[in-house]
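Sample pair:
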Amino acid sequence: MNGILFLIPVALGLGLLGLFAFFWAVGRGQFEDLDGAALRIFIDDEEPRDGA
């Protein structure tokens, strides 16, 4: 019983911390461009070499 009285507030605190971190990341724009990083692999940035 004493373990439950300790673990419930710890679990609620960690849940609120995770929720705060999620909303902080949304506010900072971390989820704005989800497809950009996945499609960036198809962009060819290197210029072709001259017969080497």
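The first helix runs from residue 2 to 27.
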